[in-house]
């Protein structure tokens, strides 16, 4: 390889990496400060709260912000890097040395690949745990000396076997399963309300099923109300399926998420939202690889087609369009409008084609 090309490669890659890290740090600091200003009153309102509580909130929230804005920081880092090289005519020097568009973008693409790997690793090892811990802490009003989290679901809301089921919490201790603050709405064949049940708690028994305590049952057609200390609730909802249906994919590790999806498939339950969330764990880090293709126009556009600022804005606009399309496709995938794999990877595939088309046009 030409020594000049090697020097240019290291130079461009280092320049982009420095800008990316600076922008990511800037976003984390600014957004963390704004978020902390918004939540500090709630955190400090808890008895015994102090600087330790604020520090804990920052440590739990920062990984979430960094994970969310990594592709965005990569996009702006690429635009600033290429725009700066174009402004100082360094790209012209590189092209004069025999470097193609692809060769100039290679160090940026290589650094983006490393960023994508780091993004995926940190998200799965740090962000998932911090998100889950912060949610548990927030549900408990940022309490000081909060005991470790158990296998508990809060604010349970599911639809299963023609019944809308809500509960304040669902807790599991060994083989014992307990729902508290239970409300059940049963629909008839015409999807009209058949009866409603309110109960203080529901406990699962291996032989009898769900046993309600302090229940009040009301028939919709006759308005008859039946109150009883204990009553049986007939439903095929077993504890494993209950915890699978109430799973929050964004706060669940990959292994557990795959296991719960298998449980949902086994019980014939809709898995579209969970599967889309699973695939998005891979597609979101991969979005960083698209950014060099979309931001390339900032450095390689022909000068007579517009000023440098206009080209930088155009490159940034293509990146923003990708983020909008990605979020829209993921939402449609979770709603079941699109297949999970289409919702997760279609924007990535589409903008990869668009990006390579831009590169081919600029190279020619």
Structural features, described:
The chain is α+β, with helices and mostly antiparallel strands and 364 residues long. The chain is built from 11 helices and 6 strands. The protein has a 6-stranded antiparallel beta sheet with strand order 1-2-3-4-5-6, with helices on one face. A hairpin with a 3-residue loop joins β4 and β5 (209-219). The chain is elongated and about 85 Å long. It starts with a helix and ends with a helix. The model has no long low-confidence stretch (mean pLDDT 84).
Q: Top keywords for this entry?
A:
364 residues
Task: Briefly characterize the structure.
With 364 residues, this protein is of the alpha+beta class. The protein has helices at residues 3-44, 51-87, 90-96, 101-139, 239-245, 254-266, 272-286, 291-295, 297-300, 308-335, 340-363, and strands spanning 152-160, 163-173, 176-187, 193-205, 209-219, 225-233.
Low-pLDDT runs: none
Strand residue content: 15-25%
Shape: elongated
Overall pLDDT level: 84
H-E order: HHHHEEEEEEHHHHHHH
Report the biggest beta sheet as strand number plus sense, adding barrel if it closes.
6 strands, antiparallel
Which strands sit side by side, in order, in the main sheet?
Answer: 1-2-3-4-5-6
Q: What class do helices, strands and sheet pairing give? A: alpha+beta
Radius of gyration: 27 Å
- Intertermini distance: 23 Å
How many E strands? 6
- Helix percent reads 55-70%
Number of helix segments? 11
